[in-house]
Amino acid sequence: MEVMRGVRVIEGMNGGRFPYCNVVVVGDVVIDAGAGLEVMRKVNASLLVLSHLHPDHSSGAWLFKDVLAPAEGRITLDTLARRFVAPDLVESWKRFISAATGLREFECERYEEGVVVKEPEIVAVPVKGHTMDHHVFLIEQKVLFGADVDLTSFGPFYGNPEADPYLFEREMDKLLDIDFEIFVSAHSKPVFGKEEAEGRILEFKRKIKEREEIILSLLEEPKSLDELVELSPIYGRKPYAKEILDFFERVMIEKHIEKLEMEGRVRKEDGKYVRV
Protein backbone atom coordinates (compact mmCIF):
# COMPACT_ATOMS: atom_id res chain seq x y z
CA MET A 1 0.00 0.00 0.00
CA GLU A 2 1.52 3.32 -1.08
CA VAL A 3 0.59 5.86 1.63
CA MET A 4 2.33 8.68 -0.24
CA ARG A 5 4.56 8.90 -3.31
CA GLY A 6 7.61 6.74 -2.68
CA VAL A 7 6.51 5.44 0.73
CA ARG A 8 5.03 1.96 0.77
CA VAL A 9 3.62 0.00 3.71
CA ILE A 10 3.85 -3.78 3.41
CA GLU A 11 1.40 -5.56 5.68
CA GLY A 12 2.92 -8.36 7.67
CA MET A 13 1.56 -11.89 7.71
CA ASN A 14 -1.44 -12.46 9.98
CA GLY A 15 -2.57 -8.91 9.22
CA GLY A 16 0.59 -7.54 10.82
CA ARG A 17 -0.36 -8.94 14.21
CA PHE A 18 2.17 -10.59 16.51
CA PRO A 19 4.45 -12.45 15.84
CA TYR A 20 4.68 -10.30 12.71
CA CYS A 21 4.63 -6.58 11.96
CA ASN A 22 4.04 -4.18 9.11
CA VAL A 23 7.15 -2.74 7.45
CA VAL A 24 7.78 0.46 5.51
CA VAL A 25 9.78 0.68 2.27
CA VAL A 26 11.03 4.10 1.19
CA GLY A 27 13.53 4.31 -1.64
CA ASP A 28 16.19 1.66 -1.06
CA VAL A 29 15.45 1.43 2.68
CA VAL A 30 13.12 -0.85 4.62
CA ILE A 31 12.10 -0.09 8.19
CA ASP A 32 11.69 -3.21 10.35
CA ALA A 33 11.91 -6.79 9.20
CA GLY A 34 9.12 -8.71 10.90
CA ALA A 35 6.57 -9.07 8.12
CA GLY A 36 7.41 -12.78 7.86
CA LEU A 37 10.37 -14.36 6.09
CA GLU A 38 8.29 -15.17 3.03
CA VAL A 39 7.39 -11.49 2.71
CA MET A 40 10.80 -10.07 3.64
CA ARG A 41 12.59 -12.17 1.01
CA LYS A 42 10.62 -10.26 -1.64
CA VAL A 43 11.49 -6.80 -0.29
CA ASN A 44 13.83 -4.95 -2.63
CA ALA A 45 15.99 -2.84 -0.29
CA SER A 46 19.71 -2.63 0.41
CA LEU A 47 19.47 -1.09 3.91
CA LEU A 48 17.39 -2.24 6.87
CA VAL A 49 16.63 0.08 9.78
CA LEU A 50 15.16 -1.47 12.95
CA SER A 51 12.88 0.42 15.32
CA HIS A 52 13.94 -1.87 18.20
CA LEU A 53 15.02 -5.45 18.74
CA HIS A 54 11.78 -7.24 19.62
CA PRO A 55 11.66 -10.39 17.46
CA ASP A 56 8.41 -9.46 15.74
CA HIS A 57 10.32 -6.47 14.30
CA SER A 58 13.78 -7.99 13.77
CA SER A 59 13.10 -11.59 12.70
CA GLY A 60 14.12 -11.07 9.07
CA ALA A 61 17.18 -8.93 9.81
CA TRP A 62 19.52 -11.81 8.97
CA LEU A 63 18.37 -11.56 5.35
CA PHE A 64 20.04 -8.14 4.99
CA LYS A 65 23.73 -7.32 4.75
CA ASP A 66 23.45 -3.72 5.98
CA VAL A 67 21.43 -3.28 9.17
CA LEU A 68 21.11 -0.19 11.35
CA ALA A 69 19.69 -0.72 14.83
CA PRO A 70 19.73 0.89 18.29
CA ALA A 71 22.50 -1.60 19.09
CA GLU A 72 25.69 -2.84 17.48
CA GLY A 73 27.50 -6.09 16.93
CA ARG A 74 26.05 -9.58 16.81
CA ILE A 75 22.46 -10.04 17.96
CA THR A 76 21.53 -13.61 18.89
CA LEU A 77 18.42 -15.40 20.06
CA ASP A 78 20.15 -16.09 23.34
CA THR A 79 21.06 -12.48 24.08
CA LEU A 80 17.52 -11.35 23.25
CA ALA A 81 15.97 -14.10 25.38
CA ARG A 82 18.09 -13.15 28.40
CA ARG A 83 17.02 -9.56 27.94
CA PHE A 84 13.30 -10.09 27.45
CA VAL A 85 12.32 -12.99 29.76
CA ALA A 86 13.29 -14.56 33.10
CA PRO A 87 16.22 -17.02 33.15
CA ASP A 88 13.95 -20.04 33.58
CA LEU A 89 12.06 -19.11 30.39
CA VAL A 90 15.06 -18.48 28.14
CA GLU A 91 15.02 -21.85 26.38
CA SER A 92 11.24 -22.00 25.89
CA TRP A 93 11.24 -18.39 24.60
CA LYS A 94 14.00 -19.25 22.12
CA ARG A 95 12.12 -22.32 20.86
CA PHE A 96 8.87 -20.38 20.51
CA ILE A 97 10.40 -17.37 18.75
CA SER A 98 12.55 -19.48 16.43
CA ALA A 99 9.57 -21.57 15.35
CA ALA A 100 7.14 -18.64 15.10
CA THR A 101 9.33 -16.06 13.35
CA GLY A 102 12.46 -17.71 11.92
CA LEU A 103 14.71 -15.24 13.73
CA ARG A 104 18.42 -15.98 13.41
CA GLU A 105 21.47 -14.10 14.64
CA PHE A 106 22.49 -11.03 12.65
CA GLU A 107 25.03 -8.22 12.64
CA CYS A 108 24.12 -4.57 12.93
CA GLU A 109 25.58 -1.09 13.30
CA ARG A 110 24.20 1.41 15.80
CA TYR A 111 22.26 4.52 14.83
CA GLU A 112 21.70 7.49 17.11
CA GLU A 113 18.76 9.82 17.62
CA GLY A 114 18.23 12.19 14.71
CA VAL A 115 18.83 11.75 10.99
CA VAL A 116 19.50 8.08 10.29
CA VAL A 117 19.27 8.26 6.50
CA LYS A 118 19.70 11.54 4.59
CA GLU A 119 18.08 10.53 1.30
CA PRO A 120 15.26 9.69 1.66
CA GLU A 121 15.20 11.56 4.97
CA ILE A 122 14.50 9.26 7.92
CA VAL A 123 14.71 10.73 11.41
CA ALA A 124 14.83 8.51 14.51
CA VAL A 125 12.94 9.65 17.63
CA PRO A 126 13.39 7.58 20.82
CA VAL A 127 10.13 6.65 22.54
CA LYS A 128 11.30 4.64 25.52
CA GLY A 129 9.30 2.52 27.92
CA HIS A 130 8.04 -0.16 25.57
CA THR A 131 11.67 -1.19 25.51
CA MET A 132 14.59 1.06 26.31
CA ASP A 133 15.72 1.04 22.67
CA HIS A 134 12.34 1.68 21.03
CA HIS A 135 12.28 4.34 18.28
CA VAL A 136 9.74 5.82 15.90
CA PHE A 137 10.72 7.34 12.55
CA LEU A 138 9.66 10.50 10.72
CA ILE A 139 9.94 9.83 7.00
CA GLU A 140 10.31 12.73 4.57
CA GLN A 141 8.76 15.03 7.22
CA LYS A 142 5.32 13.61 6.42
CA VAL A 143 4.95 9.96 7.45
CA LEU A 144 5.42 8.92 11.08
CA PHE A 145 6.17 5.23 11.59
CA GLY A 146 5.02 4.68 15.16
CA ALA A 147 6.45 1.17 15.56
CA ASP A 148 4.89 -0.24 18.74
CA VAL A 149 2.89 2.83 19.49
CA ASP A 150 0.70 0.58 17.42
CA LEU A 151 -2.81 1.90 18.19
CA THR A 152 -4.18 -1.62 18.65
CA SER A 153 -7.14 -2.35 20.93
CA PHE A 154 -4.82 -4.42 23.15
CA GLY A 155 -2.94 -1.27 24.10
CA PRO A 156 0.68 -0.72 25.09
CA PHE A 157 2.95 -3.67 25.82
CA TYR A 158 5.48 -3.37 28.67
CA GLY A 159 5.99 -6.98 29.66
CA ASN A 160 9.79 -7.14 29.58
CA PRO A 161 11.81 -6.46 32.73
CA GLU A 162 13.36 -3.30 31.25
CA ALA A 163 10.00 -1.81 30.27
CA ASP A 164 8.33 1.09 32.09
CA PRO A 165 4.65 1.84 31.36
CA TYR A 166 4.70 5.28 32.92
CA LEU A 167 7.83 6.33 31.03
CA PHE A 168 6.20 4.98 27.85
CA GLU A 169 3.10 7.05 28.65
CA ARG A 170 5.18 10.24 28.96
CA GLU A 171 7.38 9.50 25.95
CA MET A 172 4.35 9.07 23.69
CA ASP A 173 3.61 12.76 24.20
CA LYS A 174 6.57 13.45 21.89
CA LEU A 175 4.50 12.19 18.99
CA LEU A 176 1.89 14.88 19.57
CA ASP A 177 4.55 17.55 18.98
CA ILE A 178 5.73 16.12 15.66
CA ASP A 179 4.30 17.59 12.48
CA PHE A 180 3.17 14.69 10.26
CA GLU A 181 0.36 13.83 7.86
CA ILE A 182 0.18 10.02 7.98
CA PHE A 183 0.71 7.68 10.93
CA VAL A 184 1.86 4.13 10.19
CA SER A 185 1.47 1.48 12.89
CA ALA A 186 3.52 -1.68 13.04
CA HIS A 187 0.44 -3.76 13.88
CA SER A 188 -2.65 -2.00 12.53
CA LYS A 189 -3.83 0.04 9.54
CA PRO A 190 -2.33 3.45 8.64
CA VAL A 191 -4.11 6.56 9.91
CA PHE A 192 -4.48 9.50 7.53
CA GLY A 193 -4.53 12.98 9.06
CA LYS A 194 -2.73 14.16 12.20
CA GLU A 195 -5.91 15.03 14.11
CA GLU A 196 -7.28 11.51 13.74
CA ALA A 197 -3.89 10.02 14.64
CA GLU A 198 -3.57 12.19 17.76
CA GLY A 199 -6.94 10.97 18.99
CA ARG A 200 -5.89 7.37 18.44
CA ILE A 201 -2.57 7.93 20.26
CA LEU A 202 -4.35 9.43 23.27
CA GLU A 203 -6.81 6.52 23.30
CA PHE A 204 -3.89 4.08 23.15
CA LYS A 205 -2.16 5.84 26.06
CA ARG A 206 -5.32 5.71 28.18
CA LYS A 207 -5.10 1.92 28.27
CA ILE A 208 -2.31 2.23 30.83
CA LYS A 209 -4.51 4.14 33.28
CA GLU A 210 -7.46 1.86 32.53
CA ARG A 211 -5.39 -1.20 33.46
CA GLU A 212 -4.30 0.50 36.65
CA GLU A 213 -7.94 1.07 37.61
CA ILE A 214 -8.85 -2.53 36.79
CA ILE A 215 -6.04 -3.80 39.02
CA LEU A 216 -7.19 -1.50 41.82
CA SER A 217 -10.74 -2.82 41.52
CA LEU A 218 -9.47 -6.40 41.77
CA LEU A 219 -7.66 -5.48 44.98
CA GLU A 220 -10.80 -4.52 46.88
CA GLU A 221 -10.16 -7.96 48.39
CA PRO A 222 -6.56 -9.09 49.08
CA LYS A 223 -4.95 -11.04 46.26
CA SER A 224 -1.52 -12.52 45.62
CA LEU A 225 0.40 -11.76 42.47
CA ASP A 226 -0.27 -15.32 41.30
CA GLU A 227 -4.00 -14.79 41.77
CA LEU A 228 -3.87 -11.55 39.78
CA VAL A 229 -1.98 -13.24 36.94
CA GLU A 230 -4.59 -16.02 36.90
CA LEU A 231 -7.39 -13.41 36.67
CA SER A 232 -5.46 -11.90 33.71
CA PRO A 233 -6.66 -8.28 33.75
CA ILE A 234 -4.37 -7.39 30.83
CA TYR A 235 -4.37 -10.32 28.39
CA GLY A 236 -7.73 -11.87 29.25
CA ARG A 237 -6.97 -14.95 27.17
CA LYS A 238 -3.68 -16.61 26.31
CA PRO A 239 -4.08 -18.75 23.19
CA TYR A 240 -0.39 -19.64 22.81
CA ALA A 241 2.85 -19.87 24.85
CA LYS A 242 0.91 -19.47 28.10
CA GLU A 243 3.92 -19.62 30.41
CA ILE A 244 5.57 -16.79 28.46
CA LEU A 245 2.40 -14.68 28.34
CA ASP A 246 1.89 -15.31 32.06
CA PHE A 247 5.39 -13.93 32.63
CA PHE A 248 4.62 -10.81 30.59
CA GLU A 249 1.35 -10.33 32.45
CA ARG A 250 3.11 -10.71 35.80
CA VAL A 251 5.73 -8.12 34.86
CA MET A 252 3.08 -5.62 33.73
CA ILE A 253 0.96 -6.10 36.87
CA GLU A 254 4.06 -5.75 39.06
CA LYS A 255 4.95 -2.45 37.41
CA HIS A 256 1.48 -1.08 38.14
CA ILE A 257 1.53 -2.36 41.73
CA GLU A 258 4.96 -0.86 42.36
CA LYS A 259 3.62 2.59 41.41
CA LEU A 260 0.40 2.12 43.38
CA GLU A 261 2.40 1.11 46.49
CA MET A 262 4.60 4.19 46.16
CA GLU A 263 1.47 6.34 45.96
CA GLY A 264 0.01 4.69 49.05
CA ARG A 265 -2.98 3.31 47.12
CA VAL A 266 -2.03 -0.35 47.61
CA ARG A 267 -0.31 -2.15 50.48
CA LYS A 268 1.01 -5.66 50.97
CA GLU A 269 -0.34 -7.79 53.82
CA ASP A 270 0.66 -11.41 54.48
CA GLY A 271 1.94 -11.89 50.95
CA LYS A 272 -1.13 -10.38 49.31
CA TYR A 273 -1.92 -6.94 47.92
CA VAL A 274 -4.95 -4.92 48.91
CA ARG A 275 -6.33 -1.53 47.98
CA VAL A 276 -5.96 1.12 50.67
From TrEMBL:
Pfam short name (any one): Lactamase_B
SUPFAM superfamilies: Metallo-hydrolase/oxidoreductase
Alphabetical UniProt keywords: Hydrolase
Domain of life according to the entry: Archaea
Span of domain Metallo-beta-lactamase: 20-187
InterPro entries: Metallo-B-lactamas (IPR001279), RibonucZ/Hydroxyglut_hydro (IPR036866), Sec-metab_biosynth-thioest (IPR050662)
One MF term in the entry's GO annotations: hydrolase activity
Keyword Chaperone: no
Name used for this protein in its record: Zn-dependent hydrolase
Organism field: Archaeoglobus fulgidus DSM 8774
